[in-house]
Amino acid sequence: MSVVEFNTHIGIAAPMLQKNIDTDAIIPSREMQRVSKKGLGQGLFAARRYFDRGEETERDNPEFVLNQPQYSGATILLTGANMGCGSSREFAVWALVDFGIRVIIAPSFGSIFHTNCVRNGLLPVVLSETTISDLAEQVQTNPQQRQLRIDLLTKVVVDPAGCEHSFEIESLHRHMLMEGLDAVDITMESLADIDAFEMSIRSARPWMHLI
Amino acid sequence: MKQTLFDKIWDDHVIRRFDDGTCLLYIDRVFLHERTGSIALLGLQAQGRKLRNSRQVFCTMDHIVDTHPGRNDSTNVPGGSEFIRVTRERAAAEEITLFDLGDPRQGISHVVAVEQGIALPGLTVVCPDSHTCTLGGIGALATGVGSSECEHALATQTLRVTKPKQMRVNFTGKVPQGTTAKDLILHLIAKYSAAGGRGYAVEFAGPVIRDLDLEARLTLCNMAVEFSAYTGIIAPDKKVTSYLKSRPYAPSGDSWRNAVAYWSTLFSEDDAVFDKQITIDCTDIGPTVTWGTSPQHAIPIDHTVPDPNSVADPELSRSMGRALEYMGLRAGERLEGLPIDAAFIGSCTNSRLSDLRLAAGVLRGRKIRNGLRAICVPGSTQVKLKAEAEGLDKIFLDAGFEWRESGCSLCFFAGGEGFAPGERVITSTNRNFEGRQGPGVRSHLASPVTVAASAVNGCISDFRRLLK
Q: What is the per-residue pLDDT across A168-210, written as a single tens digit (0 to 9) for each?
């Protein structure tokens, strides 16, 4: 699947600084209602975002950060460590992307979630907990004006004061995000190697292979 | 350098090493279920891609299907029938072996993969499900992936991955009678945190692991993902070989002998180097139960709920406070004796025959507390049939438990079922996240023995007192 290319992004950042935000919280199982990667944004953070979800009395929870007017249009999330831990459900990333999130900045990510982000053009940025708290403090005085800029080419997050915070990302992930590349297409370039390897292990360890 | 168990399997599957440090890794088996497998198969079709080798791909129905006796295709999962229909249609079109409803091989993915001999020691296995690490219990290198990565594995029989660091957890000491693998893994996660294994492939080793039976090893590796590990793995031994012999998809004849010879080489060399080593003394580990909303919120059953104010890290303290509020508990409160509304035995963590036998041992000749809802969902149709052949179903039913068809069920709204808001549940599952078993539901993770004892008393209970 080709995804949107990622170069520079400037946007409103919303802080959700809890640790261990799990993918059940990002999208509960009951919100995954179609055999599709699309249209999942409504279910994003459903348990915290709505009261009486699915009832006639359903309404927004005004306390939830993404429901607050100052964070309206947020495209960047600032979170605590181990972001996206738990279930492998890629629905979590599809919901974030559908909602409009382009970047998540966290001290660390659940490993399956991290890969799912890259596969869908959502940039996972790792910065220290202290830096993230500082970014949250800077943006929250006026989130609509005090936006963050993320430059993937130079691998920096620029805060509202103009300070640059460098981050590391695997070069393959960066390359894929910047070019909007598809992982299967890339691997297909190694097809001859795969064929040769398969032949060799089928003769070395034939029991591994079901016929 | 001397190799670890993980190194050996990894190196035997590396097709190509790239300059950026990633490896193209050969994947021997792909397992699917109707929740995420359906999407992967549909995604593949949308891209006009074919499966590279459908013989190495298997699919089951566990996440959406109903588990009530006499079930059919209808499910309470909103839009769920479509997941079932698409899975069936795509599996047939791609010539994938599907363990459908009514098939005696149907069951929870990670239970079926072992039971049918599809996952084997030394194989690489992926499934779009985070608990795929369960299969490390028989010595497979098994990891959960997202749907896109699953499409990649289906189309290319490979994954492009960076080799993780390696950790060994040595379990030592004499395990007290009645302490189970579930208690050991909860203890480990509580001690080293739910992020303790992040970035590591974790080998579970030591004398305690060698003494564990195969099904207990699967329970231990199942929760490697709750430790945030890349995966968990245990060196295969004679217990594994004798379990796998004559399984439907296990090798036979000369192939079997070759496989067993290869498996005998799968262990970490004496002087193999790990990036990190931990030793857990099991001597004092008794029944362990979670009080909060993360698997790291686990304590010995006879301890009291911790005080968030006693924790220095302000964010950790806040999250503990929030967990207490969600769980309707106060710091200093005792878990033992806490009234419960429901009890659940099932899930890929604890639903195998040995789990049901242990729970039945507690329930035999006893009744669950009046008004309590208690449910047992065997991990596979095979487990259910074997349990029934031993009369375990009668013990569960006589005690007042529901006895179900196999599936993931109330672990997480599978089949569209949840407990009621505010209900307190003792559960043999793996995740106590907010809302996991239904909005507002308060889940306490524990072993099947603890669940059974608690169901009898109607409150969180130490089975050691009940059996005295």
A: 999 999 999 999 999 999 999 999 999 999 999 999 999 999 9
Q: Percentage of chain B with pLDDT > 90?
A: 98
Percent of chain B that is helix, strand, coil (3-state, to 5): 35, 20, 45
Residue ranges per structural domain of chain B: 5-160, 288-466
| CA pseudo-torsion sign A154, A159, A161, A165 | negative
**Is A62 contained in some domain?**
yes
Minimum distance, in Å, between the CA of residue A184 and any CA atom of chain B = 5
Say if residues B371 and B452 touch (Cβ distance below 8 Å): no
In a domain, A20, yes or no: yes
> Hey, are the CB atoms on A211 and B149 less than 8 Å from each other?
no
Among chain A residues, CA nearest to B57: A210
Q: Is A154 on the interface with B (CB under 8 A)?
A: no
Q: Which residue range is the domain that position A42 belongs to?
A: 8-180
Q: Which tens digits make up the pLDDT trace of B290-300?
A: 999 999 999 99
Query: Are A155 and A188 in the same domain?
Result: no
Asked whether residue A27 is assigned to any structural domain, the reply reads yes
Same domain, A156 and A197: no
Q: What is the homologous superfamily of the domain B288-466 according to CATH?
A: Aconitase, domain 3 (3.30.499.10)
Tokens linked to A9: 């992004």
CA distance B50 to B457: 54
User: Measured between alpha carbons, how far is residue B209 from residues B132, B220, B282 in Å?
Assistant: 19, 9, 11
**Is the pLDDT reported for residue A11 higher than 80?**
yes
Q: How confident is the model at residue A1 (pLDDT cuts 50, 70, 90)?
A: very low
**Selected residue of B16, B30, B148 to mutate for chain A interface (largest A Cβ count, 10 A):** B148
Residue A35, in any domain of the structure: yes
Q: Say if the Cβ atoms of A88 and B130 lie within 8 Å.
A: yes
Q: What's this model's pTM, rounded to 2 decimal places? A: 0.97
- Encoding tokens for residue A99? 């909602």
In whole angstroms, give the CA distance from residue A4 to residue A12.
Answer: 19
Which pLDDT does position A3 carry in this prediction? Answer: 67
Dig out the tokens for B46 from the structure: 């949308």
Decide if A17 and B78 are in contact by the 8 Å CB cutoff.
no
Q: For B198, which of A29, A82, A210 is closest by C-beta distance? A: A82
Report the gap between the CA of B96 and the closest CA in chain A (Å).
12
* CATH class in words for B5-160: alpha beta
pLDDT for res A73: 98
